[in-house]
């Protein structure tokens, strides 16, 4: 009944006469809906997708990685030593931070060292032993060993910050981001909106959009209504059930952006019941991926039995997570002491709740009870990092190289994005060895040990590869989306 009501609501919106609310006569402001409030805009300590959607417009990196190629951003050139341990970057000399400070090699030194101290960035920068300013516009980064993904994981991931701005912001850094990017941070009204303004002194090509508001609309029907009436111009909060009808709309454009993101059921290996590998295997075997995708995501995802996308550099495909098998699931459950206890299953977003409810019904087939608990998004993230949960579901995207997933599965990432709290010498060693291996086939073989450990131990349960659903007004053109599924304001323009 709820499904039909949602369909009826969406259909009514699509055929209703509409009127614009609060839209300026001249299109110089883009309003983008987001589905929860922000955690903050310190790029080293704020890794949620929504925060990144904002700060990617404020900060630049040395490089940008898109469609398998590197684009030079704050550098004009770079070289790699023969032994693969030294990267030298020639920097632009025409760049100014939003606070008026000139961008120099000293800012790269500061940023790389600050990233090394960050719990969320340290896995990317762990190989760096020295960062040296050769002069104002040349910088050398020295590694302890060859690190094959360095350009994708560091040069294209570490946002360059200004030391003076960071020091002046102090404890307020998350609310005072200062970068070199095409947009300047102006305002954050918690629970309401974030306002950005085009950087008129930007060194590169100025984006067309002058102002942007990221509007917090936690209800997806409200976001769709606002899009339909013209109150907002774009939303990433499209319910999967609405996708087919939005694709037929003459007023709106519907984009389905494939990503490298993997969606899975995550279990805290230190929690009651799920600490038992037999119990986890029972859950994995009872996971009806087809049902979750069709009923929980309305078909808008690609089924996957792998923890990372097949396009990820270092993917071996030698191992696969076990397929759906109810009878075998019951056999594994019988090996445990579980006796019908209810296990809490926390979620922090509406789309995750829908998945969890479907999964809750599926697990009843083997007699396992889960209690789906909806938390405020930031509270949910905090609980996941601290280990204050038993089960949850999440989608994570960590770039085009397997090594970047050390942030999720390496023991050093416990307390960060290693939500499962996996502490495996096998996994840690594979990440360490694979990072320095220059032969692609051998490298994939090394990483296969990680896949084997995760699947055979049922550490997490892979379910799908993520597709980001994006709907926008026809007169707002989105030129490209990154592997995250999101676009920057520079990749949009008015028609």
Written overview of the protein:
It is built from 16 helices and 19 strands. With 495 residues, the protein is an alpha+beta fold. It has 3 domains: 2-37 and 182-255 and 470-494, 3-Layer(aba) Sandwich (D-Maltodextrin-Binding Protein, domain 2), CATH 3.40.190.10; 63-166, Alpha-Beta Complex (Dipeptide-binding Protein, domain 1); 259-467, Dipeptide-binding Protein, Domain 3 (Dipeptide-binding Protein, domain 3, Roll), CATH 3.10.105. Strands 1, 8, 9, 10, 11, 12, 13, 14, 15, 16 and 17 form an 11-stranded mixed sheet that branches. A 4-stranded antiparallel sheet has the order 4-5-7-6, with helices on one face. A two-stranded antiparallel sheet has the order 2-3. Helix 1 (2-15) packs parallel to helix 7, helix 9 runs antiparallel to helix 11 and helix 15 (425-436) packs antiparallel against helix 16 (440-456). The longest helix has 17 residues, at 440-456. The radius of gyration is 23 Å and the shape is globular.
